[in-house]
């Protein structure tokens, strides 16, 4: 049977400051963050079985700074 994948990304402070190399969210031009690597590896397998190849992705725990949005 086929499955449907959904992703949920934790942006809470428990993962460290994203500009710190020790953070799970730290991004560089030449290397995936631990989160990106995990999603990539899992996706390679799960998307073969996902019926529509669309993956809704949600984030939680972030403090969004936008002119028209208050967190």
Give a quick precis of the structure.
This protein has 71 residues and is α+β, with helices and mostly antiparallel strands. It has one helix and two strands.
Distance between the termini: 40 Å
Task: Report on the biggest sheet.
Answer: 2 strands, parallel
Shape: globular
Number of DSSP helical runs: 1
Number of strands: 2
**Oligomeric state of the chains in view:** single chain
What tags apply to this protein structure?
single chain; globular; two-stranded parallel sheet; alpha+beta; 1 helix; 71 residues
What does this structure look like?
- This protein is α+β, with helices and mostly antiparallel strands.
- A two-stranded parallel ribbon has the order 1-2.
- The chain has one helix and two strands.
- It has one helix at residues 34-46; strands spanning 7-10, 57-60.
Could you outline the blueprint of secondary structure elements for this entry?
Layout: E1 7-10, H1 34-46, E2 57-60
Parallel strand pairs: 1-2
């Amino acid at each position: 049977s086929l499955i449907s994948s959904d992703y949920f990304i934790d942006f809470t402070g428990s993962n460290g400051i994203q500009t710190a190399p020790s953070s799970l969210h730290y991004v560089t031009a030449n290397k995936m963050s631990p989160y990106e690597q995990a999603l990539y590896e899992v996706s390679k397998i799960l998307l073969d079985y996902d019926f529509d190849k669309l993956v809704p992705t949600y984030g939680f725990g972030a403090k969004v700074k936008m002119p028209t949005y208050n967190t």
